[in-house]
Amino acid sequence: MNRRRPSHFLFSSHPLNLKRLLLASMVLIIWGCTAQQAGRPLTERSPSSAHSQFILAGQETATRITQRYRDTRSDCGAPSRPAFLCTGIILRGTNPSPDYHAWNPSNLSVTSGGVSFSYLRTDAKYKGLAYSYKNGFFFSPYLASAGKVHPEVLCSFAIDGHTFERPTDKGCGAHIRYTDSGLCRNQGITTAAQWLTHYDRVTGNPQRQQHQCAFDVRDALNEQATSAFNASIAAMKLIPSESFATQNELRIATWAQNIPTQLPIEAFFYVNDGLAGAQHDQRDFYRVTGINIPIIRMTLPAVAANDATFEFRAQDQVDQDELVIAPSVMVLDGLSIKASWPRLRDSVGNAATRLPTGGHPPYRYVSSAPAVVSVNAAGKVVGERTGSATITVYDASNQSVSYPVQVGNVFLLGIQPYPFADVHAANAWVASQGGHSPGLAGATDLAHSFGLPLPPGTIGAQNYWLLTTEGCPAGLSLYYSYQSGNYGCGNNAQPGLGALYMIRY
User: How many helices (H) and strands (E) does the chain have?
Assistant: First the structure.
């Protein structure tokens, strides 16, 4: 029996990104892959303002908000200027997440064309936020925020409008269960009393909330918008128990993504134990814009006889000079086959980016074990081999923060070009070397990471078993052909193929 030539191990990595490849099977299986654009660049920040000035500005913000909360004017100095332009608080509850910015419209809002807010004033009060949110942001009144983008206020619901089930008119239209739940003005409903009659035509909640109509307050309506908004506030008083228990709802036109400095964000707020979420958003906003927006503690009334309060507390504010990064373990366990070929994209689940906030940019990233975990100048981490390491981030003032990284599921690509008698012989030889079949997942990773056709192989067989039957009909196994540049399925008894395999690394 011939002695088999030494196999070749190909090992290397060059970071980029990922998407997916499509598998189509007949006798031949062809993959194509496309790249997914990755992370947003870290924006440089301007220095924070003096601490004392920020404290003073925060206190003034809380005072202004309190004054607006108590201001119950019916318009803003002209019949064509609805009260929401200068009085009360327009607020949106959010959930903190590293996956998105709180000020960006959600995917649902992008699809519907409207974003949900609530309006809070001493004559339009409630005891809790939608979905039990614990934090969010306030919009400055439009008449006091010149130079900012002012997304149009579209309609006002006296109580939660269940707008996620109102697919038309940007969430102001009819609820899917009630055809007569469209805009009030289209039904001749212009007063709170008329609204209540319509509201009471069905019984129980959420049925009545779903059946209610919204008051149209679009800018083009001028005086009618003002009277419509006032009617929505008056309608709350006609259902006092319900409106206090459940917040009202404004629909505001969806704005563009990633325009934080153009939005009239007045403050981030929290209720109850939501401080950490508000601090996350304050820190995120500062990282992106270099602007420090104050955090306001909002206390909603427990009983209708009480009022909401708004307080700026210095101890709630994030120290933007402190360098901070999430300390949790970063786990990179996506299958990654390493080879010395030029890498087009990172293996899925084998790379991630974690960014710091605060401190003094620029940041510098250092890995305690670069051979195990590499990190580039933008903070992107790649698992190079199985093991663990610590990433330490330094800022310009030499502050440092760290987090651990755990890497698994990394392999070296082995190529045995000498032809085997059949797939069973190939499997037996690979097993004797301590190797493993790449499987369909490995084939996918190779095509995703290096592209098809795969880079030229070593001299020898032109076709290579991948030692798996996945994706193939009975009696056939997956192979790669350098001649066609594609994966295919071949008869298990076919002689003359080499083997692509992998070794744990």
Answer: 9, 26
The token pair at 347 is 């293996």
Q: Where are the beta strands (DSSP E) in 162-287?
A: 215-216, 249-253, 265-270
Extract the tokens encoding 130.
């939608």
* pLDDT at residue 38 is higher than 80: no
Residue 365 per-residue DSSP state: E
User: Domain limits at 163?
Assistant: 51-316
Q: If DSSP states are collapsed to H, E and C, what string results for 316-332?
A: HCCCCCCCECCCCCEEE
Q: Say if residue 163's pLDDT is above 60.
A: yes
Question: Within the chain, what is the greatest distance between any pair of CA atoms?
Answer: 99
* pLDDT, position 460: 58
Residues 420, 466 share a domain? yes
Task: Check whether residue 87 and residue 28 sit in a common domain.
Answer: no
Answer yes or no: do 41 and 95 share one domain. Answer: no
pLDDT for residue 456: 76
CB 75 within 8 A of CB 212: no
Same domain flag for 40 and 102: no
* Residue in the structure block whose two tokens are 């360098």: 323
Model confidence band, residue 457 (pLDDT cutoffs 50, 70, 90): low
Order across the sheet with 380-383: list the strands. 351-353, 380-383, 373-375
Q: How far is CA 207 from CA 29, 115, 161, 177, 203, in A?
A: 53, 22, 10, 9, 7
Residue 1 pLDDT > 50, yes or no? no
Angle between helices 192-199 and 223-238 (to 10 degrees): 50
Same domain (yes/no): 300, 330: no
Answer yes or no: do 302 and 325 share one domain. no
* Integer Rg of the chain from CA: 30
Structure tokens at 2: 């011939």
Q: β-strand 330-332 against 400-407: which pairing, if any? A: parallel
Average pLDDT for 360-380:
97
Domain count, the chain: 2
CB of 264 closer than 8 Å to CB of 139 = yes
